[in-house]
Amino acid sequence: MKLKGLCRICLIPHRSWPCRSKKECGVGDCRMRHHHLLHSRTTELGTPTPSTSFSNSVAHQHHHSTTTSTLLRYLPVTLFANGKRVDVYAFLDDGSSSTMMEAEVARSLGVEGPREPLYLCWTGDMTRMEKESQRLEITITGRNEKKQFPLKARTVGHLKLPSQTVNYEELCVDHPYLKKIPLSSYSQVIPSLIIGVDNAKLISSLKSRDSGNSELIAAKTRLGWCVYGRHTTDTRLVEYMNTHVEHNEQVSELQDQFRQFLAIEEANMKRSPQSEEDKRALKILRETTRRVGGRLESGLLWRYDEPCLPNSYPMAIRRMEALERKLSKNPFLDTKVRQQIAEYLEKGYAHRITSEELEFTEPGRVWYLPLGVVSNPRKPGKVRLIWDAAARVEGVSFNDAMLKGPDMLTALPTILIRFRQKRVAFSGDIREMFHQFLIRQRDKQTQRFIFRERQDEPPQIFVMDVATLGAACSPYIAQYLTNRNAEEYAEQFPRAARAITDNHYVDDYLDSLDTVEEAVSLIKEVKYVHSMAGLEIRNFVSNSTEVLDNIGERSKVQEKSMNPEVSIERVLGMVWRPSEDVFSFDNSLKEDVRKIVESQKVPTKRQVLRTIMSLFDPLGLVAHYSVHGKILMQRIWRTGSDWDEPISGEILADWRKWSGLLANINEVRVPRCYFSDTGATTKGSQIHVFVDASENAYACVAYLRSWSNGVPRCTLIEAKTKVAPLKPLSIPRLELQAALIGSRILENISKALTIPIAARFLWSDSSTVLAWLRSETRRYHQFVGFRVGEILSITDIDEWRKVPSKVNIADQATKWGDGPSFDPKAWWYTGPSFLRESD
Predict the structure, then answer these.
(1) pLDDT confidence band for 387 (50 / 70 / 90)
(2) For range 732-756, the mean pLDDT
(3) Which residues of 728-745 are buried (b: 16+ CB within 10 A; e: fewer)?
(4) Cα 687 from Cα 247, distance rounded (Å)
(5) CA-to-CA distance for 494 and 406, rounded, in angstroms?
(6) What angle is formed at CA 461 by the lines to CA 156 and CA 363, rounded to 5 degrees?
(7) Contacts of 262 (CB under 8 A, 6+ apart)
(8) Alpha carbons within 13 A on the beta-carbon side of 69
(9) Residues 549-562: what's their mean pLDDT?
(10) pLDDT value of position 123
(11) Whole-model pTM?
């Protein structure tokens, strides 16, 4: 108050005294001249005593300054669906824009609907995201009524409304006008349904009865009679304010996903400085990591030293029952889950809880992780157990108590760039990586889960002894321990240590070498170093059958991968054909995306985004095509249309053109190896980066120029494209943005490549950008100055060259001479116009 200059009486910053307001506090018997919100909870009035008639809990947003107790509009209702009925209490809430039902009620009715994330907002900027919310259509009637009404609702985990008691006989004594109204008494009920103004017909008052002296009102609705208002016979220090706003924004969820998709463009570009939380996570691992029986053990990354977790057992029971219903409908899945749990116990990943653990574990350090199961459509029959560490109890989840730790992963584009350097390529993955790392005894009890063999048996409690899939801290723990193990053997096996720290992406390992002998030797060293931490790397794939034979990995799967007709392997999301040694793209789109592309129906904004995001291309090998999809999405964004509103007009025509080419993307073939030609050499290799911009987008593309039998040969390394910002920028400034990402991509490629680079060049056709870079004054506006400063800190001025005017950048590249796999015009972004058929 002092900082803001607020008056103690009216909370207005009028900065004059005395305040002209004569208003007194008014809380209880307090007659002091201060604002009632500043009244102490305990002074003058003393500690409030619990009520025998009303709950003293607080729902959602609260103030501690009310002088009377309040009855909310609660009434008993019956819900119907799938031939089932459930009796619940409903809260008729004029302040809620959405009707919401607890998910447990929906499960009792056996009703399901489409899942759409729900974003809830209350007063005081309180928010909550219900990611698993479903849209439901059921039937409702008043408990003592006959007529039924359709009800549309959204599910939420818990409403957490206050309990309430109504004694009709006592109310009639104090309020005689309530007599002969068909009201029912109830005690300590907590509603599991909020009916909002989206069902206004059901909550509107048809009749009402009140008194001139009382603020307690009885109202008749289509669902029956209810009583609400101030009940003057009791006094409380709590006021309930239930205002719910539904943002029909999955927007929040969709925008997060879209940002993650565009973040691929930023991968390998810039690293954020280490935060205090990252430093704490690193400190915990340094202090708790130790070797136990040939494996590594560490502690969990607690956000605070002494966590105090709420009781999550009831939540875990509900989730177990939901899983049982799911498994009962799928016998194959049920068998797989039970087999995996038995394997976990046999392998030592988990154990049944002991009586000592139940008795002596601190209550605040116990958490029950709901067990879940996922499957991959690309791998039929494969089932994976997961633990939902994001499940909440009293607004708290297991992941909320955990630190994620710093990002230790080598950027995905960096690994792929190195993977393309040498002629002999191979990849493998670590078996059940997370489960190979032990969790220290003190932290294990926060990794409990519940399961049972039969539904008529009592639930059994199990404890995970290893890092789990689903915990926010698991990726960092696994990466840190893997790297730490490699560093301990770096002196004995330097090549293997570098391969583990630099060429692993989580549990995937990609590498390339010049000869079969080198590859076999390195693979055996990497296998040995991993085994020292209990890790097993297997499932190797290579473009050389000799490598697979020598390491004993020539399985039936490998035989299949050597068949040119079905030779497809996925490495870090990229499609690699080992027999041809080329990258390609898979046009076997997901079913929902395929329907969008092939259907003659007009797509919505949501469907267009889904299709664009289905194209995974971390190296930008088809950036000349995907950039037009980004431009198209931006044009739709500019219209301000809703997510489920169909696109129209010129945008629809351009969508037809763009999506019509998507099915042909599997025809693209990009050589994996930069020097695949016989006679190609790394000697005298150069990196050339071209940058360009238009009013719609800006981009950069990097080529590796080498020599093959005395003839220059160019190979595409990487490309980046970005749409121009919604706030218009001048073309020179967009050209500067292109120069910036070109500088970054040059720096990262130079660091990624291990082959010698004789020279580096950056090319631009913008005289303005080159003038900015060569200027002696260095006096620019902030926008230009910051970017020029970063570019100069990355690159040498002498590396910048001017592309001749009126000459296409790709045409300039052809003057170097193009090899059999190089067609510059096929790769370069052609400018602001939409992709033409002739292109």
Answers:
(1) very high
(2) 93
(3) ebeebbbbbbbbbbbbbb
(4) 49
(5) 25
(6) 75
(7) none
(8) 22
(9) 64
(10) 60
(11) 0.69
Q: Which residue has the higher pLDDT, 253 or 313?
A: 313
Q: What percent of the chain has pLDDT over 90?
A: 47
Task: Tell me which H or E stretch contains 371.
Answer: strand 371-375
Per-residue confidence (pLDDT) for residue 638, from 0 to 100: 87
**Sequence-separated (6 or more) residues with CB below 8 Å from residue 552:** none
Q: Is the pLDDT of residue 247 over 50?
A: no
Q: Phi and psi at residue 241, in whole multiples of 5°?
A: -125, 110
Distance CA 747, CA 790 (A): 12
Q: How far apart are CA 244 and CA 666, in angstroms?
A: 48
| Tens digits of residue pLDDT in 171-228 | 888 888 888 888 888 888 899 999 998 898 999 988 888 876 667 888 899 999 898 8
Please report, as a single letter, which amino acid is at residue 154: R
CA 131 to CA 134: how far, in whole Å? Answer: 9
206-243: buried (b, 16+ CB within 10 Å) or exposed (e) per residue?
Answer: eeebeeeeeebbbbbbbbbbbbbbebeeebbbbbbebb
CA separation for the pair 221, 203 (Å, rounded): 6
Mean pLDDT of 139-162: 89
Residue 322: exposure state from Cβ atoms within 10 A (0-12, 13-18, ≥19): middle
- What is the Cα–Cα distance from 488 to 528, expressed in whole angstroms? 13
CA distances from 299 to 296, 305, 358 (A): 11, 12, 20
Q: What is the pLDDT of residues 592-634, one digit of tens each?
A: 778 888 888 899 998 999 898 888 899 999 999 999 999 999 9
Q: What is the rounded CA–CA span in Å between residue 441 and residue 446? A: 10
H or E element that contains 571: strand 569-571
* Phi, psi (degrees; rounded to nearest 5) at 604: -95, 170
Strand partners, 32: none
Distance separating alpha carbons of residues 93 and 101, to the nearest angstrom: 13
Phi and psi for 654 in degrees, rounded to 5?
A: -70, -35
Cα 727 from Cα 416, distance rounded (Å):
34
Element (H, E) at 477: helix 474-488
Start-to-end Cα distance in the chain: 66
Indicate the angle between helix axes 782-794 and 731-752, nearest 10 degrees.
20
Q: Which two tokens stand for residue 272?
A: 């954020």
Q: Whole-angstrom Cα distance, residue 647 to residue 604? A: 6
Sign (positive or negative) of CA dihedral 151, 156, 157, 162: negative
CA–CA distance, 63 with 437 (Å, rounded to integer): 48
| Residue 834: predicted pLDDT | 27
Sheet containing 118-121, strands listed edge to edge, beginning at the edge strand earlier in sequence: 127-130, 118-121, 245-247
Does the pLDDT at position 167 exceed 50? yes
Rounded to 10 degrees, the C-alpha dihedral 349/354/356/358 comes to 90
- Per-residue model confidence (pLDDT) at position 275: 86
The pairing of strands 759-764 and 800-802 is parallel
Distances from the Cα of 426 to the Cαs of 410, 421, 636, 682, 715, in angstroms? 18, 12, 42, 20, 21
- Lowest mean pLDDT: which of 92-101, 238-247, 345-354, 823-832? 823-832
Task: Please give the mean pLDDT across all residues of the chain.
Answer: 81
pLDDT band of residue 161 (cuts 50, 70, 90) is confident
- Among the listed residues 741, 739, 747, 736, the one whose alpha carbon sits nearest the alpha carbon of residue 783: 736
Q: What pLDDT is attached to residue 713? A: 85
Q: Which of 571, 491, 555 has its CA nearest to residue 529?
A: 491
Q: What is the pLDDT of residue 831?
A: 29
- DSSP letter for 516, please: H
- Environment class of 566 (CB within 10 Å of its CB; exposed 0-12, middle 13-18, buried 19+): exposed
699 contacts 770 by C-beta, under 8 angstroms: no
